[in-house]
Amino acid sequence: MDSRLVGETVKLYTETPEVWYAQRCVESIPRMRGEGKHRINYRHISDWLVRKPGAFEHYRCREELFPSVRFRWAYDYLKAHHTLQKASKEYLEILPLAAVESQSIVDEALECACAMCTGINFSWIKEIVENWKAHPTPTMEVSIPPVPLSDYDELLQVQEAAG
Predict the structure, then answer these.
(1) pTM of this prediction?
(2) Is 31 in the same domain as 89?
(3) pLDDT of the residue at 72
(4) Range of the domain at 11
(5) Domain match, 22 and 6 both
(6) DSSP secondary structure string, the chain?
(7) Are residues 57 and 108 in the same domain?
């Protein structure tokens, strides 16, 4: 949660605590029940981790810092091809990119790097993300022709005859 929200109103409901600021809900978090449960949003701590990359490997809630399977795959790839320190540093540069730009675009960039067999590094992933931002994929237009209402009348007549 943003440190500017410390001291603001927190409303506790049965299933979700909510943080309110300026008459608007800025954070809603599903409640975790039981012992040893946690929920970490990588967007909230990725900047801190970049400054301390050595802490990443032994971070207790590290699995929460892989937003998708591709991010996990990317980290495993980096560990296999670099020293542990270099792999952590490289991954922790990619993670804030997902937080700032778009998690889905970074996810697609990781898939693209995998498909092209180029290897994974921050500069390459950033270049792919910037290219997609400059040239977004056009949306596909879908055309659905209107359905004649007489078709529904026929269905009702068939149902009445069978009933």
Answers:
(1) 0.64
(2) no
(3) 92
(4) 1-36
(5) yes
(6) --GGGTTSEEEE-SS-EEEEETTEEEEE-PPP-STT-----HHHHHHHHHH-GGGTTT-TTGGGG--SHHHHHHHHHHHHHS-HHHHHHHHHHHHHHHHHT-HHHHHHHHHHHHHHT----HHHHHHHHHHHHHSPPPPPP---PPPPTHHHHHHHHHHHHH-
(7) yes
